[in-house]
Amino acid sequence: MKKIYTKNKIIYIYKREDERESKKREKERKKEREKERKRERKKEKERKK
User: Fold this and answer.
1) What is the pTM of this model?
2) Where is this region: Disordered (predicted)?
3) Largest Cα–Cα separation, the chain
4) Nearest to 36 by CA among 48, 44, 46, 47
5) DSSP state of 11
C-alpha cells in the first residue's frame, strides 16, 4: 500500500474503502430480504392449501 502524506488523499482513500464496505453490506441485506420474502411466500402458499 502506498503512503500518501496529504491528509485529503488519505481521507479520500478511507472514504473509498468505506464505500466498498457499504456496497457489500447493501448486497448482503438485499439477499437477506429476498430470503425473507421467499419464506413469506411459502408460508402464504401453505396457508392457502
Assistant:
1) 0.49
2) 17-49
3) 67
4) 44
5) H
Domain boundaries, the chain: 1-49
State how far the alpha carbon of 13 is from the alpha carbons of 3, 10, 24, 26, in Å: 11, 5, 17, 20
Coil, helix or strand for 4? coil
> Which residue would you say has higher pLDDT here, 41 or 1?
41
Residue 31 to residue 20: CA distance in whole angstroms: 17
* Residue 21 half-sphere exposure toward CB, CA atoms < 13 A: 6
* DSSP code of residue 39: H
Cα 13–chain centre separation? 19
